[in-house]
Design a protein that fits this description.
The protein is α+β, with helices and mostly antiparallel strands. The chain is 28% helix and 19% strand. It has ten helices and 14 strands. Helix 5 crosses helix 7. The longest helix is centred in the middle third of the chain and has 25 residues. The N terminus is likely disordered.
Length: 372
Amino acid sequence: MGISKTSEISVPTKLDYDRASELKAFDETKDGVKGLVDASITHIPRMFHHEIDKDSASSSSSATKLVVPSVDLADIHLDPTRRKTVVEKIREASETWGFFQVVNHGIEIPVLDEMKNGVTRFFEQDSEVKRELYSRDDAVKPLVYNSNFDLYSSPAANWRDTFYCFMAPHSPKPEDLPSVCRDIMLEYSKEVMKLGNVLFELLSEALGLNPNYLNDMRCNEGLVAVCHYYPPCPQPELTLGTTKHTDNDFITVLLQDHIGGLQVLHENNWVDVSPIPDALVINIGDLLQLITNDIFKSVEHRVVANHVGPRVSVASFFSTSFQPSTKIYGPIRELLSEENPPKYKETTVRDYVVFSMARGLDGTSPLPYFRV
């Protein structure tokens, strides 16, 4: 079953709109949002229509003056004074923004560029090849491609397609990755793992802990590469690229291209995380907020749709995610006191992620459900 051009369909009333059928028809094409754009639609299907967040200003005079912190990681292993300054910047950003960008992070520019190109090649390859990888069952294939993991549970679909793969602790077999991006996915993920070790050291120091503390806790153990493709949208004001959400991991390392669209909610304003050439965006995840007992903040963010595109991004989630795990995580004892008792129950990573994913991107954080 295909989806015809919605420009040729009369707009349904609430009484005759069959959302379930529209979702099913879209899903069965296995062509995602890119398939709609390739069909030259001029009006987006109703399943993509969002109630855009009215609670916070999308733009205001104060928001335009706000800039997400940027941290230069150059020479942090050579200059103790400089490292101390960097740690302080990361501490402040993690406590107040939950987001910061890093430059001179050690990953070569050709690697960043090739990773973005690899994602583009994947989504722009022949549809028949991609359809073979399309799935809604996480356990079926090492790499899964689909559009909207929460398609059937979310209030509205997002204007994006995605493929994702678990890269650590067990690296995929090369033959399980698509040939168009196989080599770069393996290389880029190794580089991100190295950067993650450094970031967890700096975050440990920012908490006043031993540099190895978070790595010894195995916060750096798992890595999931989630690669997004946001096609140009004919009616971006009606939809979102990604709904407001927080990340259900320890930290996320995001590679975004030059187009932009990522926004973070700061002081009730949506602030653009404007692309900085060759920078990586780092954000605190729910699990790091949980183990730091609310010292570091996992902050809501979203991606707006855009007439321009495609936009591509690669979100590398430090988490073992759905993979079996018996390790229990709770608030770090060294950070607790009579004045600062534990605010969260202990949980495994898997239990937290399963709970989070079952709810979909509904615009609210799962963290309150784990409060003591």
